[in-house]
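Dear H.,

Thanks for agreeing to be a second pair of eyes. The structure we're designing against is below in token form, covering all 138 positions.
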């Protein structure tokens, strides 16, 4: 049986935060899917497949990520196909433009590298995974 995947949408400028998310994913029993290696496919096709295959779709909401075209596309696609979404933001007062304003409850955690958010995020991912359990059995 394949380990369920967590797809992480993020801006490349926020790559230093992926360490915490990877730790949280492992703690929640998930493997982290952040990029694709399907060079023969168009980017949108490869990303759509990874998002369709993931158990949970997470997005790091930072001032930079919300304006990145691919992050916006990934979020819109995940919402369109009904994926459980785990939005993560540092700033509770962050104003979310569309499509981010349609996201479910945002987990506000201090986004710092070096494992500081991993434990709380793992707890949130386990909750999101349980809510989307039916998606795992398809």
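And this is the sequence the design step returned. I haven't edited it by hand at all.
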């Amino acid at each position: 049986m394949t380990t369920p995947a967590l797809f992480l949408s993020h801006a490349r400028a926020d790559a230093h935060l992926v360490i915490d998310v990877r730790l949280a994913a492992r703690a929640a029993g998930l493997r982290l899917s952040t990029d694709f290696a399907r060079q023969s496919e168009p980017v949108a096709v490869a990303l759509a497949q990874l998002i369709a295959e993931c158990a949970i779709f997470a997005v790091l909401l930072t001032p930079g990520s919300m304006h990145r075209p691919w992050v916006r596309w990934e979020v819109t696609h995940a919402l369109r196909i009904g994926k459980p979404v785990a939005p993560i933001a540092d700033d509770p007062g962050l104003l979310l433009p569309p499509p981010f304003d349609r996201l479910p409850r945002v987990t506000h955690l201090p986004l710092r590298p070096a494992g500081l958010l991993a434990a709380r995020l793992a707890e949130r991912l386990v909750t999101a995974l349980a809510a989307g359990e039916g998606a795992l059995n398809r």
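Two observations from my side: The mean pLDDT is 77. The radius of gyration is 14 Å.

Warmly,
E.
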